[in-house]
Amino acid sequence: MLGLKLLTDPRWANIAESNLSEILTDHAWCEQKAASNAITLITQNPEFEDLVHELTAIAIEEMEHFKMVIEIIKARGYTLGRERKDDYVGQLMKFAKKDGSRNMAFIDRLLFAAMIEARSCERFRVLSKNIEDQELATFYHDLMVSEANHYTTFLNFARKYSTDVDVDKRWKEWLDFEGELIQSYGTKEYIHG
Asked: A Pfam family this protein belongs to (predicted)?
């Protein structure tokens, strides 16, 4: 369904589970950044009432997820660490087109968000199916469903609001780029690492 070119090796879940404090901290900050991204899209495109409505709901949901992860961190006696630099997201941001029309930049920002949500969904699936911690396995299964809904929301808005971008062609370019990029990741206890 997600169209990802390369799936995560299930052994990555063992890496993540070997340092739950680290993966949970990274996950918390990913949720915060996802909320910030939705808010940025709203502030840059307030004329699209349905987008404002849907992305407000996503921003709130992402912050609820942030809170949930923080609560898990606290309940397990961990401490929320500092925000991590997400090199994967940085590489995706570099791929996004910024030098074309305003519409092209808008569409690419939506596709950028869809790409991150798709990979997060896939990683949450790997965690839900491959970690021994049943509480976290259930938690990540529930988040996987949420991320899949976010992915389709961003992709559908890109298709709806494109005026000069062949969205399906550009999405294929995103999938191809991410398929190459992700080959360098999957060895660290980061959601995208």
From this structure: MiaE
